[in-house]
Every structure is written in C-alpha cells, then in structure tokens.
Amino acid sequence: RQAMEDPSPPPAQPVPVPAQAEAAAATGQAAIPASSKAIRFPLRPGKGSAGTRCLVKANHFIAQLPDKDLHHYHVSITPEVTSRVVNRAVIHELVNLHRAAYLGGRLPAYDGRKSLYTAGPLPFASKEFQITLLDDDDGSGAQRRQRNFKVVIKFAARADLHRLGMFLAGRHAEAPQEALQVLDIVLRELPSARYAPFGRSFFSPDLGRRQPLGDGLESWRGFYQSIRPTQMGLSLNIDMSATAFIEPLPVIDYAAQLLRSDIHSRPLSDAERVKIKKALRGVKVEVTHRGNMRRKYRISGLTTQATRELTFPVDEGGTVKSVVQYFQETYGFAIQHTYLPCLQVGNQQRPNYLPMEVCKIVEGQRYSKRLNQNQIRALLDETCQYPRDRERDITQMVKHNAYQEDPYAKEFGIKISDRLASVDARILPAPRLKYNETGREKDCLPRVGQWNMMNKKMVNGGKVRSWMCVNFARNVPDKLARDFCHQLAQMCQDSGMDFALEPVLPPMSARPDQVERALKARYHEAMNILGPQRRELDLLIGILPDNNGSLYGDLKRVCEIDLGIVSQCCCTKQVFKLNKQIYANIALKINVKVGGRNTVLVDALSRRIPLVTDRPTIIFGADVTHPHPGEDSSPSIAAVVASQDWPEVTRYAGLVSAQAHRQELIEDLYKVRQDPQKGPVSSGMIRELLISFKKSTGEKPQRIIFYRDGVSEGQFYQVLLFELNAIRKVNTYFIHPVLYLSVFRCFH
Fold first, then answer.
1. Whole-model pTM?
2. In this structure, are strands 284-287 and 233-246 parallel, antiparallel, or unpaired?
3. Which residues fall in a compositionally biased region of kind Low complexity (predicted)?
4. pLDDT digits (tens, 9 = 90+) for 595-610
C-alpha cells in the first residue's frame, strides 16, 4: 500500500452534493432518498462451494470488542491552530498535568481535532483548562518561548458500541461508522506519538532501512493500520507501506542532487535558482554555524542576488551591513560559497537571510509533491515483497508495536491478537477459454494462471491497415527496429489480426527530449500519404528506453489527446530479446486496443455464468481520480467503462469527464442540457454507454452490475444515493422496463 495520497477524511464527513442534484431535489424531480436509512444492503446469501478448500493467512489481527462505557467529549482549543501536532501536544500536556486531579484517572484518546473519548465518564460535564507549551530547546541556553492555550472539554454523547456488536453478530445491516471511528482513534493514539503519521499510515526511519529515491529524496518504511469489522469479528488490518521523505542533507548537497550537478564552485543559472526555490519553499531547515544551537526556520523563498551582494539595515539610523560581513563579525564564520543565493526565512515582508551552506534540512519532512517515474519505480521496488517476507515483516511490526501493552488499548479494554488470522479459502477452477475456430487449438484450460498463444488464434482479430514506428531508444539501431517491427507485424497477422506487414513509413529514430515534435512531424508525414487515399493512421508503435522517466506519459498524451491515434509502447529489453512469446503478448495488447477480442469464456457462450448470461447484462466500472496533494486548482477526473458485448462481456468502452476539484460524486453520470430547438435534453455518461451497448448487441440491458471504486465506507451511502438515482433517471428507451440493478463497492 503506497501512502502517497491525501490523509483519508473522517468516516463521518459528509460528501458535498453537486448543485444540479440539489436543484433537482428542490423541484421534486430527483428520486434521491432523504437518508441512507432508505437503503438496506442484503446479507451474504451463503458461502461458496466450488474449487479446492484451503487455509490462508490474512494480514488481519483479531480484536476483542471492548465491554466499556465510552464517552465522547467536544474539545475547543483557543487560540485555534490547524496543526494536529500542536493540538496533540496541548492535550498531552493537559493529561500529564491533570489526569489524576481532574480527569478521574482516565487516559483519554484524542483525534487531534475536536473529539476526545474516554472509557467511562469524566467527573464533569464541562471544564476549562489553561495550558502552557514551551518551544523546543534550540541549544542556545536562552529562555524558551511560551504559548498559552485555553482548552474547554465538554460532554457531547455516549458512544454506542451495542450497534457494532449487533452488526458483528449479523443482526444489523449497517456498520456503525462512529463506533469504528472511536476504536480507530484509540488504537492510533500511541503510534501517533511514536511515529510520523500521514493518512492512515505511520512512518519512521527506525522501522526499516532508508533507500535513496534520487533528487534529494529517500523512502521511509512504515505501516498502514485500520480497525475493520469482518466475518471473523472485529480485526486490526496491518500492512507494510513506504513513502518519500526529503533527505536531511546540507542544503547545498540537496540542491546539487536536485540539479544533478556540482554547484560548490559556480553560481546558479536563473532556471536552476527557480527550480531550487520551488523545491525548498515550505521546507524546514536548522542552522549549523552556531555549535549546539540548532534553531529551526521554514524557507519562504530564495534571493535573486548572490550572497556577496546582499545587504540589510542593522539599525534605524540607516546603517547597512553585508550578509558576509555580519556572519564574520557576529559568529566568526567565513562564508565560502558567496556566489550562491541565500535562503529567505520568516516573514515575506521582512525576511531573514541565511546562507545555504549554514543550513541543513530537518529530518522527518514528508515529500507530498508528485514523484517522477524513476522515483515511483524505486518506491515500488522498495515495497515489493514475496508473501512470506511480507508476513514476517507484518508480524514483526505487530510485536514491535506491542498492542497488548498499549496503555490506551488497555484503558479502553481492546485486546489485539499477535497472530495473523487464518481464513478458510477456495482455489477456484480456472475458466476454459475459447479461441477462434480456425486455429489448431480452439479452446484452452489455463494451468497455474498461465497459458500461451501457440496454435491459437484470436476470437476476433482487429484491423490495422496503416501503422508506423518511432524509436526513442538510442541503443536500438535502425536495422534492429525494422526487424522487430516486421516480426511483430507477422505475429499479429498469424494470431488472427488483419494487420499490414509493412508500415506506412520506415521506423524513424528520435530524441527522447523531443517526443512531441517527433511524433507530430512523423504523423503529418504519414497523413500526407494516407490522406489522399482517405485513410487514417491506425497504430503507432513506440520503442522506449528501459528507464524512460516521463517519456511514456508524454507519448501517450500526444497520441491520445493531440493526434487521436492508438499507441503501443515497447521497452528496449523486449526489442533485443526477439522472443516469440513477447511478440504474442504485445499482439494481444494491440488487438484489444483496436477493437478486437482475444478470447472469451466458454461458460459465457454456453450461458453458464450466474447473474450475467441468463438475461442481457451490462457491467459498469467507475472511479474518480483526484489531483495530487498541492495541486489546488486541477479538476478531478471521473472515468466510467461499460461492457459492449453480451453474453461474452469481453469488450469495454470508456468515457472520462472533468469535474469539480476533489469531488467524489460523479457529476456527469446523468445531466440535462438545454438544446436551442428541443429544449431540455437528457444526456450523460450512463446514457451514452447504454446507447453504445444497444447498438453493438441489439439488446436493452435487463440487468446492470455497477462496480464503484474509490469510496470510503463513510461516503459510500451518500455516493450510492446520488449515483443510483442518476442511473434510474435514464430513459427506459435504453433500459428494459424490468431491470435488476446491483452496485458493488470495490476494495483493495
């Protein structure tokens, strides 16, 4: 699990409903129920019996539901601060000072915001406390700054664990999110004090080796933790994770890594200065030129002038002193790299100047911006483990955290097992695959999840009449690129595709840093040949270096968005192998992209797939991708795919739509637009995909199966209410009047 996303919102947080839904509800047009209580999920009808029974281990640790009287208190801290770290420090100090005298000996669990929970009542309904925090000792020997806070703790409600017990016993349909949230907060209290918390994960350099990711970043190991209701009862889900942190380097060394160039003996260019400024803004540094005194500052910018050119007023009389002179006279420190700019720290109006060579990056700062492709690959390599190794690390993590000795878990009566849960499982029989009748092998039964295309032909081969290749790998000579393309074209044809053996133009070599220019130029050359024949370019094959950074994404963007052509990328190592199995795998990918079908399930053709093949069925999949943290203006992107054949359900069409920033509800599932002639006209992603399904199958779907990804449990009911209503509003011209609709929430 990669902890590269924004911290998950609290389960109880409401999902904003788009304005069109609110307006429809106000006019009485929408069929959105007023509450999630109008929906009840069906219970699981039973357990499977197919396949071979076995026992597996899951990264879940059984927890006993506490038999305690839990109380919820509202916390108000004045002056208000946004930092959970500061809030936790305030409450921690309050508990240290007043636990025995005023809290009745209770050890409360705090969420870092507005909620505090206790196992049993506090001896008051409302009470005010005055708390003083001291800043960290910077080693100067000077008096530490004091910050005073007023804390008001007020009784809010009793947390109801009875409904959770009913749910776990199968006598209640809904998982009570508030009760689960209380238990989650209790079990996160101790790790939050020990480690660096981000989202639902905790990280520390003590939890595993650090690995460099390049450009001044490193990976820290950590663990994901969440309390879950399961069929086994309550359990704690633990998984290993990793994320990127800024390396605690001297600032000059960090800048050199970022620029991939030695800057110890030369000034920076304007472009380099801007890049460093962008990377360092908001980063905390500590000074190193004052012995044991390590005062910390947050970087607000970078000077445009070199250090040797910087001056500042030292008194109200207008006396000016240079930064170089000030450091020499005040600290006896001779600045060596006077040609480099200074860091600006503190107030933007009156910033302080710190030479880069006297600053070191403070440890423990998570990098929340977008990683490049090489860094992502390094991070994935770090977290990729064999199951046995992962089992060992997770078990060690649980023992290291010592949940049995956790004072908060003890206070609230939560007991956590230190053994992975054993779960009954079944190894399902592999489905038989159907291939084209013209091949020597007309069907195939995969073994251990593997099969190949030897003696087989695709069920429906796609058409590629015109194609070309652009080679961005400098170590792949032109002759090898031509041979590779010829062998690949031959494999596509032999596998059942209508594939031209010769490209429109010979393979061309191009520089990776000029991908857009090369692709567009070559495309226009090809269209000069195809245009007079009223033909289009069907496919572009791109040969890329093995470590291609952003090249892959750039090629896809240009082909998909700018040129509107299908593309297939191949790595250098695939080209050099000249292996038939590699050609076959690439041919399968190309065939699906150009509208073909590689194989179908024998059970689908014989109508033996339950709830799919008995009546016309369309299967939807939907997800919303949100901008990376820090990208505050970018839209969220909703994507919906739907099957376009039946009973095979093998071909899919997809639609994407930009919508409001971080909006989880898919706004364009159903919408009404104003047509100048026709007036209000219904449209939307569901309608378009249903029209496409009817055109390709000749059937109106009698069943819709809708898989929805990316929704937390707390949001699911609200998302379900809105999106279910959007599906129901589609005209019955596209849906059979007797409709069966199933919605599934996807889990990772």
1. 0.82
2. unpaired
3. 18-27
4. 999 999 999 999 999 9
